[in-house]
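Record 1 of the preview.
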Amino acid sequence: MGEKIAIVGAGAAGTVTAAYLTEKGFHVILCDKEEHCREDFKSIAENGITVKGPGLISGLYPKTLTHNIAEAMEARKVLVCVSSGRQQEIAEWMSPYIRSDHSLLLMPGNLGTLVFHRVFQRENRQAGLLAELGECPWAVRRLSAGSYVSAMPPGQKRIAGFPAKDTQKALDDFQDLFPLKAGSNLVEICLNSPNVITHLPGTLLNLGGMEQKGKDFALFKDGLSYACIQCMKLLETERKQVLKAMGMECFASPVEPLLLMLKNPEDHPELEIFRGLAGPDGPEHRFLTEDASCGVALLVSSARKAGIEARMAEALLTLANGISETDYYRLGRTWEWIGEEREKIL
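->
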């Protein structure tokens, strides 16, 4: 049996990661609180992980399924696969068991390493390494208990450490798990995520369709009007300008070619799994709540910091605020939220 790897967070991303690493020969410990994965763990214990998608095998059994965080933290390497809304909770859950030899990787991070750092600092605890990916390795959805679909194999992702000086160490520690490349800093890899460009406009411009189709709505099948794609292109242009003004690399692939391929199923049947990925289903979905507060809010904040006019980003954030009656900028992960730790990030 190979090296122990703990995965904390047994949603679609965490469980598909467990299947992937189990197939690669790692000793995988999959952990989450019982209320989040009771039925999934029951199904996986009986049938293994059922997964459909390129490069993945169904019927694999992680070495350990547990609700005991102390058992998960026996592993030195810990992958955290939860949404930004659960990061504080998971950091507090893990905190009593953190050791100085632990390496933590958030997948994706959305600047969540700062959340973990702040919790551990408050509790007088310290991990050996904190790092994050700019985006999840998978485009995945849960189909039913213990059953998942992944649209694409894990392509190369950017990794950054907190503080930034630890990025090379993070790359060295985790490159045996996934195809990785070093990013310059956490803000750079966060802003380069495709979710910053596609999720918020895709949600806001399709709320009527979501009301009609509910959980059957699939953005990349039902929501890609040419107007929606144009909105995403304008947002992408602003992101490029902001990254350039801040001296950061814009390494993200342009979104338009893929979106146009998704709009033409007859010519591109190979994208049918991606096209059918469910969601979002309304303004409470993470495509709005998470990507407004952790993506577009950071873009708006960075634009203001750099003296760049970002009208599309500002408009989308204002619209999201009004629809949700929430100030995503004030509550979001912005340069103001980063505060004094900006020196460690850069």
